[in-house]
Write a structure and sequence with these properties.
This protein has 115 residues and is α/β, with parallel strands linked by helices. It has helices at 10-19, 53-70, 93-107, and strands spanning 4-6, 21-24, 28-34, 40-46, 78-84. 37% of the residues lie in helices and 24% in strands. The protein binds two RNA strands through residues 1, 6-10, 43-44, 52-55, 57-58, 61-62, 64-66, 68-69, 93, 97.
RNA sequence: GACGCAGGACAGGUGAUCGCGGCUGCAAGUGUCGAAAGACCGCAGGUGAGGAAAGUCCGGGCUUCACAGGGCAGGAUGCCGGUUAACGGCCGGUGGAGGAAACUCUAAGGAAAGUGCAACAGAAAUAUACCGCCAGAUCUUUCUGGUAAGGGUGGAAUGGCAGUGUAAGAGACUACCGCCUCGCUGGUAACAGGGAGGGCACAUGUAAACCCCAUCUGAAGCAAGACCGAAUAAAAGCGAUGACGUGGCCCGCCAGCUUUAGGUAGGUCGCUUGAGACCAUUGGCGACAGUGGUUCUAGAUAGAUGAUCACCCAACGACAUAACCCGGCUUAUCGUUCUGCUAAUCUG
RNA sequence: GGAGAAGUACUCAAGUGGCCGAAGAGGUGCCCCUGCUAAGGGUAUAGGUCGGGUUGACCGGCGCGAGGGUUCAAAUCCCUCCUUCUCCG
């Protein structure tokens, strides 16, 4: 991805959970925290309760693809953690895509489209 | 033909756009990091999950640790023979159970080496007479003795059944069956067939109770392990270096420099050419083994296969994502398709 | 990825082949105590589900995570699955 790298360390995740703001909808939960960097860092977390390995990987790919296509709309300098809820098991790509953009709107982290 | 039985193959395909992990090559900079080597960014090509990758139930390779040799304990396996690197797997056979058959299932050694346990019921559970039957005695309704044919209890009660016999009975005796012992024949063997004898003793069941017998077995696991190695803390050394104790020196101490061990963060290796795959052929009923040829086919490290559109098809596909690697087993699974076999029932 | 442990009524749980018809505690219902509650005391209860039944009792079958097996008999012994939890950098 052009402007982003992935969030890897467990301590980074804990920092975002403790200090970040969160919004949720039917399929996803999103935590956001500002970092003092030029790029965004995104972490995707899918619990074992959601399903087996195939389902979890598939959900991860859907979220990453949705983020990739909307990447240029996001502000930079953010640590984002996206958590899939149990209801996301049977969700299609379109549902995930709209859920992600809905949460981005709630966080008000989209760039002004007028510019 | 339906139904049934056994064995095997496939696991959506094609095209377009965007995107991801290794690998190979190119490009060469006005880009970023770096002293440099180089790394990142860029372009192109090629490549990229399964039949179970799953469960982790067995076995092996590999690695580290332990170890003079041997045994005990513990664990595993358990009809016989073969196969294999090895196995609890597989193949072929034997016995037993099921089915009309094709065929399927089978932890299937020893209970006459010893110990334990067998609730309740029942007179009695491994040793015994409750009722009954019979004989004798007798105070005439009790006692003594014999008896496992009958009743009742129980999962299990003196081998079964028919006869002889007897007071009543009893392998007490006889035939058949079962059991045990010893030869014979066939078979590598499990075992099968048939013969002679015993005369039922040990008396039932349980070894997925302890145990006996035979065979095997050191422990842990790639988060194993090997190498490199910041930072911090530690030790040793250095003296025309600096500050302080001090006005000066020895010395001390702090800083500085060098070295050492340690092995954390992190990195590299282990890591994919292997008991490999495919084809042909030879031996074998088969599992499998031999020979020859061809071929190289993921290697990530928060962890790569997805999204959209169009077409095909009855079907948006079912179950499911390698993590050191192999051989099995078990479990999950929408369907499509091929080969062989059976003949109870139904249809033609 | 690897190594282990556990599963019993609503909850916590005892039960290591047969008196299990599954102990005990909490919980629940009723009564006493109190002006009313809490606490305390007493007492009762289905202890799940299916079938039968005189619809109060009561009787029978299946039930200890699920399914098989061994045994006369299984919560207990053996095998295969499922779920939950713990440890290893």
């Amino acid at each position: 991805m052009k402007f982003s790298e992935s969030l890897k360390k467990n301590s980074d995740f804990q920092k975002v959970y403790r200090n970040g703001r969160s919004f949720a909808n039917r399929f996803l939960v999103m935590y956001v925290l500002e970092n003092e960097k030029n790029c965004n860092r995104i972490g995707i977390s899918v619990s074992k309760k959601v399903g087996n390995s195939v389902i979890r990987h598939h959900i991860t790919r859907l979220i990453r693809e949705s983020y990739r296509l909307q990447e240029e709309m996001f502000n930079s300098g953010l640590d984002i953690v996206v958590i899939a809820r149990t209801t996301a098991r049977n969700a299609s790509y379109q549902e995930i895509y709209s859920a992600l953009s809905h949460l981005g709107g709630l966080h008000k982290i989209f760039k002004r489209t007028e510019n």
